[in-house]
Write a structure and sequence with these properties.
mainly alpha, two-stranded antiparallel ribbon, 2 strands, globular, disordered N terminus, disordered C terminus
């Protein structure tokens, strides 16, 4: 079963690669969201022209071996942007780092390491001119596209934060639509954009504790009974820590089936299913369920917007020499910075 699933996904990956050019045209020619000051659609055209091809090739190769990496990278990007902006702060390690906050404990370690592996390849080709924040944004974008989702351009030029957030506030899986809409509104997202970004749950896994409150001690009446019984097999007790897929129809493909799940009362999390239960967002869910192209367009534009939340640009922040360590804690980087400053003084 697993072999068949992997084979079908690899076939999809090859087809997606062939279609990316045509997919891209529909999203790049449409009106793009505004660009944050300091970012540009052509930021690395001169300093690192092969950047995007390097990232895409590595993502393509990696997904053939590990299908779940796509969802992992998308989630890390979301968790980065929603806390203190898209500044790569979630990549920093340390005893009090964002990675140790409860919502981030389940971030995939392999995906975090993969971002720094990408950084090493990019820096080998171009030198230390591309930020970890930009590499993460591109990795998330390519994970979407190579999993069957929309391909879209990204404005680049983000800088890396020198600090991580002390408070990590992220939308909760236990929240109803009112809370979710308010959480996203604080980041300037309207209801349509909120529902579109929630569609990122069309790929990936969730641990039992994120949804067993819907099963025990009393079953959530908004859950389809057969779906709930299957979930109980995966999570036989309220404290089980197994995992299951978000989207039971096409768990490894980025498509609009997540919304079909919601319409059939097969949304995994409270925050998912309530988008269809609530009259304010039900129509949006339905529109995405019946029109995948519409969902893709809305998702792409919402991701471009999200990727620009509170970005650092210009001389703000830094370009990390290692994504998990700020430069002031990286001796090799400090030496490199001193040499660069000396040369700039001579020039």
């Amino acid at each position: 079963m697993a072999t068949a699933s992997a084979s079908s996904f690899i076939s999809l990956l090859l087809i997606s690669s062939l279609l990316l050019a045509s997919l891209s045209s529909s999203f790049t020619e449409a009106q793009k969201p505004p660009v944050a000051k300091g970012l540009s659609w052509t930021f690395y055209d001169q300093s690192c022209p092969k950047l995007e091809s390097i990232v895409r090739k590595q993502i393509q190769n990696a997904l053939k071996k590990d299908i779940g990496l796509a969802a992992g990278l998308i989630r890390i990007h979301f968790h980065d942007c929603f806390v203190q902006g898209c500044d790569g702060s979630v990549l920093l390690e340390g005893s009090s780092s964002e990675q140790n906050a409860r919502p981030n404990l389940s971030l995939r370690k392999e995906a975090l390491k993969f971002v720094d592996d990408l950084r090493a390849r990019v820096h080998k080709e171009c030198g230390r001119v591309v930020s970890c924040a930009d590499i993460l944004a591109l990795a998330a974008r390519d994970s979407v596209a190579l999993s069957g989702g929309p391909n879209y351009d990204l404005p680049l030029g983000r800088r890396d934060s020198k600090t991580f957030a002390t408070v990590v506030n992220l939308p909760s899986p236990f929240s109803n639509t009112t809370v979710i809409l308010n959480d996203f509104l604080e980041k300037t997202f309207n209801a349509r954009e909120t529902v579109a970004l929630s569609g990122g749950h069309t790929v990936g896994l969730a641990h039992c504790p994120a949804f067993t409150s819907r099963l025990y001690p009393k079953q959530d009446p908004t859950l389809d009974k057969t779906f709930a019984n299957n979930l109980k097999k995966t999570c036989p007790t309220s404290d089980s820590n197994n995992t299951t897929v978000f989207d039971i129809r096409s768990p490894n493909v980025f498509d609009n089936k997540y919304y079909v799940d919601l319409m059939n009362r097969q949304g995994l999390l409270t925050s998912d299913q309530d988008l269809y239960t609530d009259k304010r967002t039900r129509g949006i869910v339905t529109s995405f369920a019946v029109d995948q192209s519409l969902f893709f367009q809305e998702f792409a534009n919402s991701m471009i917007k999200m990727s620009q939340l509170s970005v650092l640009t210009g001389k703000q922040g830094e370009i990390r020499a290692k994504c998990s360590v700020k430069n002031s804690n990286n001796l090799a980087s400090v030496v490199e910075d001193v040499v660069e400053e000396a040369w700039s003084g001579i020039i």
